[in-house]
Amino acid sequence: MTSPRIVLIGPPGSGKSSVGKRLGRTLGIAWRDTDVDVAERAGKSIPDIFFDDGEAAFRAFEKEAVATALAEHDGVLSLGGGAVLDPDTQELLESHAASGAQIVFLDVSLAKAAPRVGLNRARPLLNSNPRQQWKALMEARRPIYERLATATVLTDELNPDHVARAIAELEDHR
Ligand code: S3P
Asked: Is the whole model's pTM more than 0.85, yes or no?
């Protein structure tokens, strides 16, 4: 089975995309982001999908994009923050972990995530009162991120280059 070598999971503002890009470069392997796949497939941006079609339609696109990427990508894969909510996706991630994929939870505190996501209007789930919405998302999802992760990196005091380096070092010791 083709499997990504590393899958990055975590809430908005944890750095999944910026770390994924750098990690791919560091390890000399391809990087892919399922948010990008979803927008390409739908032919419009994620905020437009939420606005025109609703969250359920977005989640259906996302589920398919994640399953496709897990089946065909062998590099670094960054997932959208809510992708892990789907039970079938959880099962897929567990089976990829069992066959050697490293699933890395990029953990981050509200204090560090809020300024990052608050400034970014491209996140429809955090449109009004981003701090409070982020906190609720993270509380609901933390047990899932923790259960699926084969490794966790607390990113609070690290920039994306440092996080990428920390994950690359984990790889060296496997
Ligand atoms: C979402 C996170 C976003 C994007 C969509 C929904 C979520 O990705 O998939 O807006 O449910 O947390 P990021 O985690 O890259 O912001």
From this structure: yes
Task: List, for residues 128-166, the tens digit of each pLDDT value.
Answer: 788 888 999 999 999 999 999 999 999 999 999 999 999
Distance 170 CA to ligand 1 centre (A): 26
Question: Could you tell me if the CB of 77 is within 6 A of ligand 1?
Answer: no
Homologous superfamily of domain range 6-172 = P-loop containing nucleotide triphosphate hydrolases (3.40.50.300)
The Å distance, Cα 74 to ligand 1 centre, comes to 22
Report d(CA 131, CA 117) in Å as an integer: 9
Residue of the nearest CA to atom 2 in ligand 1?
A: 81
Task: Note the pLDDT tens digit of each residue in 82-113.
Answer: 999 999 999 999 999 999 999 999 999 999 99
Domain ranges of the chain: 6-172
What letter does residue 84 receive in the DSSP assignment?
Answer: G
Burial class of residue 128, CB neighbours in 10 A (0-12, 13-18, 19+): exposed
